[in-house]
Amino acid sequence: MFESLQERLGSILNGLTGRGALSEADVSAALREVRRALLEADVALEVVRSFTDKVREKAVGAAVLKSIKPGQMVVKIVHDELVAMLGEEGVAIDLNAPAPVVIMMVGLQGSGKTTTTAKIARRLGERQGKKVLMASLDTRRPAAQEQLRQLGEQVKVATLPIIAGQSPVDIAGRAVQAAKLGGHDVVILDTAGRTHIDEPLMVEMADIRKVSAPHEILLVADSLTGQDAVNLARSFDERVGITGLVLTRMDGDGRGGAALSMRAVTGKPIKLIGTGEKMDALEEFHPKRIADRILGMGDIVSLVEKAAETIDAEQAAAMAKKMQSGKFDLNDLAQQLQQMSKMGGMGGLMGMMPGMGKMKDQLAAAGLDDRMFKRQLAIISSMTRAERANPDLLKHSRKKRIAAGSGTDAAEINKLLKMHRGMADMMKAMGGKGKGGGMMRGLM
Ligand code: GDP
Q1: Where does the SRP54-type proteins GTP-binding domain start and stop, copy by copy (predicted)?
Q2: Per-residue tens of pLDDT for the chain, all 444 residues
Q3: Which end of the chain is least crowded, N or C, by CB within 10 Å?
Q4: Is the CB of 274 under 6 A from ligand 1?
């Protein structure tokens, strides 16, 4: 899976990594190629569009780090956007509901629904000790119910006894009833598919949903599905309302676009992936791993991550020097605030510095918490350069102007100035004692 996409993206981005400087035109040219590669990999057009827009926005504005090439920066941005597009990490099947928890499996015929039903049942039984009941609601294909029964035997999970002639809705009702009586924790309903989406299928799914009140509705989709993936996911989500996706045949050599499109279009998490015909070929979904596979440039990504850390350290060192000299103006404070929010806010920052408890209290007393970073940065950026360098200039009328410009008030500006004064004094004192850098030294 993903080989050809990986090859294409690789050569495009390698082209970029050879260059010294990256202009907007370079970014655009590269993105045209990225766009073509994604389309060829069967990623849906609307998804490709929003993807390349986001990458462009970030790539053109990105501060290029000193030690890396601009093209490498683009690789990192493409990688991060792929991860974002694929969604969050490992969202497990949610069983947090009164027993029996109903899981409804939906999807087209041949997508791997029945196989996945048995795989999930096995997993819930073996890993979570759940007592599971499976029921096939596929009355259209005579062999379907028998197929699930046999898989049940194989994975040692109970299946609902087959009663010939019952409708899917009746079977669903009976399955839930049987699970209640039998003390099952989970009941998985394997619904019938069609070769394509049609109205009767959607009506049937809605009816089954009504009688069984499923807690999870998982759309099982073949990851080799091409451009249809978007319609498929959207239709099922709009008409039946899905809670997650399971992508099958991730072991195949398809172009992989479906994985990218379906999550983007529905916003629903990819919960599991099928990686083979065997009953244990079911895996959790890891966006970062998939993005690494698509891009095949993990080394560049980690290089950029390291460089970003280094640049932070370089900035920190410069700041430390400044503090030691006793100069700490509002420009410096703005830089500090930016760095703090980047490093996990106040909690994260203080956690890195031994003996900073007292300072934390002082800052808290001055009203500095994570939510205030943004407002404080807004205040500082509403000041003139002279005001930032020399806060003593800030008298009443200037404060009024800044309050209006930043959407805050004089009280908040005073709070900021008080905090700045406190920090500057403390840093001077720490510098004077020869401890060096103080606050920023702790970060290195
Ligand atoms: P259903 O019609 O949706 O119930 O599909 P089935 O569960 O009957 O699966 C159709 C075929 O796909 C079977 O031969 C399965 O063994 C196969 N299959 C299902 N999931 C996977 C998978 O993740 N990888 C591979 N290679 N084959 C799969």
Answers
A1: 269-282
A2: 566 666 666 666 666 654 455 667 777 877 887 787 778 777 888 888 988 888 888 777 666 565 666 666 777 788 788 888 888 676 889 999 999 999 999 999 999 999 999 999 999 999 999 999 999 999 988 799 999 999 999 999 999 999 988 999 999 999 999 999 999 999 999 999 887 788 888 999 999 999 999 999 999 999 888 778 888 899 999 989 999 999 999 887 665 677 778 888 899 999 999 989 999 999 888 887 777 766 655 556 666 666 666 666 666 677 777 766 767 788 888 877 776 666 555 555 554 444 455 556 666 665 556 667 778 888 998 998 889 888 888 888 999 999 998 888 999 899 889 888 888 887 777 665 444 444 444 333
A3: C
A4: yes
CA-based angle 113:115:117, to the nearest 5? 65
pTM over 0.90: no
**Does 113 sit in the ligand 1 pocket, CB within 6 Å?**
yes
Q: How many CA atoms lie within 13 A of 89 on its CB side?
A: 2
ipTM entry: 0.98
Q: Does ligand 1 lie within 6 Å of residue 223's CB atom?
A: no
- The conformation of residue 383, written as its DSSP 8-state character, comes to S
Asked whether the beta carbons of 320 and 312 are under 8 A apart, the reply is no
CB contact at 8 A, 319 and 336: yes
* Distance (Å) from CA 319 to ligand 1 centroid: 59
For ligand 1, the distance from its centroid to the CA atom of residue 9, given in whole angstroms, is: 30
